[in-house]
Design goal:
Elements: H1 2-19, E1 23-24, E2 40-42, E3 48-50, E4 58-63, H2 70-81, H3 83-88, E5 91-97, H4 101-111, E6 117-119, H5 124-128, E7 132-135, E8 139-142, E9 146-149, E10 155-159, H6 167-182
Parallel strand pairs: 4-5, 5-6
Antiparallel strand pairs: 1-7, 2-3, 4-9, 7-8, 9-10
Length: 183
């Protein structure tokens, strides 16, 4: 009976995430042109990452609701499939959700993710970026938002409530365009 309850809970979570039901938290997202909020989080292998580690390169910092859900898997795999193009553009990719390190490890291994996905289990980074969302008042997850951060650590673009399919290519195209403008 507990397995059935667990499956039902998982189904409800997936349905909520897919339908994007929920309310945003009170914190506002940092505006383009402002410094990106600092963070220090562990990746799927337990290694610590900080925003300052990415100084000097473009950073696609994407938040997503939950490991192993359809939209999150699509989004992560598209970033994975474009990894060489991002590297060629001088950009790094980092994913963040409120799942723990162990969940990220399984997700990353299952889908061969070649970039860090960071565990924000305290939800402090999701709050700092204004993407923490409450679902039916019982669960808080990160909204599917991406922040494009320039080599100086400033937010240059925010993509809110993105559609997972095709998002990676949109971010990559924007990086290429911004690099042309800045020389």
């Amino acid at each position: 009976m507990s397995r059935l309850h667990s499956l039902r809970s998982c189904f409800i979570l997936v349905l909520l995430v897919c339908l994007n039901l929920g309310s945003a938290s009170a914190a506002e997202s940092p505006a383009p042109g402002t410094p990106a909020p600092a963070f220090k989080l562990q990746d799927q292998n337990g290694k610590w990452h900080e925003l300052k580690d990415y100084r000097g390169k473009w950073l696609a910092l994407y938040f997503y609701p939950k490991d192993q859900t359809p939209g999150c898997t699509t989004q992560a795999c598209e970033f994975r499939d474009n990894i060489f193009a991002f590297r060629e553009a001088g950009a790094a990719i980092v994913g963040i959700s409120v799942d723990d390190v162990e969940s990220h490890k399984k997700f990353s291994e299952k889908h061969g993710l070649p970039f860090p996905i960071l565990a924000d289990s305290t939800k402090s980074t999701a709050k700092a970026y204004g993407v923490l969302k409450s679902y039916l008042g019982t669960m808080e997850l990160a909204r599917r938002d991406t922040f494009l951060i320039d080599p100086e650590g400033r937010i240059v673009k925010r993509y809110a409530d993105v559609e997972p399919k095709g998002h990676s290519q949109i971010v990559l195209n924007d990086i290429r365009e911004m690099k042309k403008k800045t020389g």
